[in-house]
Amino acid sequence: MTLNQRRVAFFDVDNTLMRGSSLFFLSKGMYQRGFFTKKDISNFVVANLRYRLSGVENKDEIAKIQSAACEFIRGHEASEIEKMGIEIYDEYVSPALWQGTIEIANEHLSQNEEVWLVTATPKDLAELIAKRLGFTGGLGTVAEVKGGKYTGKIIGQLLHGPYKAIAVRQLAAERGIDLENSYAYSDSHHDLPLLEAVGNPRVINPDALLQLHALREHWPIHDFRRARALKKAVAPILGVFMKAATLASPRTWRRGTK
Fold first, then answer.
1. What is the domain count for the chain?
2. For residue 1, is it within any domain?
3. Is position 14 annotated as part of the catalytic site?
4. Residue 59 counted as domain residue
5. How far, in Å, CA of 145 to CA of 152, rounded?
6. Residue 120 parent element (H or E)
7. In order along the chain (258 residues), what is the average pLDDT of each group of 10 residues?
């Protein structure tokens, strides 16, 4: 790495940085605020579920997700969505963040390394999340805006699969990033092109296919789901012991002072 080249850590968002789907949280927040009905988002939900359940790279399915994902913001003011995005971040995204992932990202920042989010979710939302977390920036699907309103169309491609790797290489060329010495983190086997675009791939909360690949390639694996599950299981037991200790403490003290 030359002195004028940057080393960067790229992070996927959904299930890597946070539990769940950022786009789902956005659509849920819009629905609760009366932007549309349940019927309006049914196409997106169905397309997304079909894709996730099949786990198969299919251009037709991806096209359906791409179309449905942008359709639900069509006609809305970009400034209005931006303002609402801040509320949705505080309400849904922030509580769903994986603190272990945040710590990894902050460690990169402490080493003067840039941290970028790379996600299929709208670029505006990716940039908002990055800004709130103090990261360098966000790469996402670019929704077309004309006259201050979303048209429902996408500029370029849905930032998914191989298109994440393309976006990262383009960013590297523009900003002098040394990809060979950079890092990438993801939970999904669909992000293998992104992970293989850098010299230091890492996986977080991996799906089954990605975990097998990571084990075979000896990539570091971080799984924060187990720690969270253990904490949820142990917390009630600790609560019982703490309560018992609190109740027993005064009696023990009195017996000890007689």
1. 2
2. no
3. yes
4. yes
5. 8
6. strand 114-122
7. 77 95 82 73 57 54 62 81 89 95 98 96 92 97 91 87 96 96 96 98 97 98 76 45 51 45
